[in-house]
Amino acid sequence: MGLISSHPIAETRQITTAPPGRGRKKRPVVTVNVPYIRSLLERGVLTRRDEDVLLTVDELGALSVGQLTRLYWQSLSTARHRLRKLYDLHLLDRSEYNPARMIRLGLQPGVVYTLGKAGRLWLNMRTGKKERYVLHPLNTLYHNLALAEFIVILTEAVRHAEDWQMNWQGERSCRIVTTRGDRRRVLLEPDGLIIFNRPGDDSHRYFYLERDLGTENYAAFQRKIRRYGAFFLGKQWRTRYGWSRFPPVLVVTNNAGRARGLIDVIQQAKSPISWGVSDIETLISLGRADLLRANVWTVLSPGKPPRQLSLLSDP
Fold this sequence. Notes:
Blueprint: E1 12-14, H1 34-42, H2 48-60, E2 63-64, H3 65-72, H4 76-88, E3 92-97, H5 99-104, E4 111-115, H6 117-127, H7 138-160, E5 165-170, H8 171-174, E6 176-180, E7 183-188, E8 192-198, E9 203-211, H9 218-234, H10 236-241, E10 249-253, H11 256-269, E11 275-279, H12 280-285, H13 288-291, E12 297-300, E13 307-309
Parallel strand pairs: 9-10, 10-11
Antiparallel strand pairs: 1-3, 2-4, 3-4, 5-8, 6-7, 8-9, 11-12, 12-13
């Protein structure tokens, strides 16, 4: 159980006890099966917020206790107590990751939660799917945490923008797959999809999202650009989403140097769609009230020179 089996000890360690100051109580051993989940539901153990937490962790793959607190609680101690309960029920798993690496990604070090075995079974019973409980590679989880941080700061920014609302999907929901016979082919695998809308006047902004950690070389990013271009030219996005225009792709990378490199790659690729590039250091430095309207995105559109625009600039 947990993540330690596939990860180096220097990078991560599974947590099986309570946090310091709360004793050393071991995680209860339970048999995770359908009767166990039914018992939790019949006893009303799960709250609506618990369900939202499980759905969010499943969609994004991993979130830290700090990120979950910012999304769902006012108090860190309250969040820790409830997340510990979900961990004891095996609905969530938790581990600790390399603090230095988390800081380099703009993340606050701390406990990280992923979906537990009981959480996966609960979701399968809820959706009718038969997805497996899996342990993700370490680099994937760091990427998930970095992506989650951007979603969280956008959520905080929208809370300050009373005239706008935001919805989002993670990689699981916006993956584009075609099926031919028994063969499945992934056409496009965005990290996320963000939708801003302003109630009352039907204003909206759509963006695909890519969280770049700088671990891929530029040739790999060029292949990603070509996949987006092929999906755009294939027109499937019109029937899938009913959009009148293809959404720009937002690329959030780690620092300004990497951002400049990606801008050069996108310009050289002559992509048929629009791209917006910024870095997490710049975005975090902004006040949440300014994040949506600050012109901190270098926007590259076909036939136009690079422009500095905000997320809410007119398309």
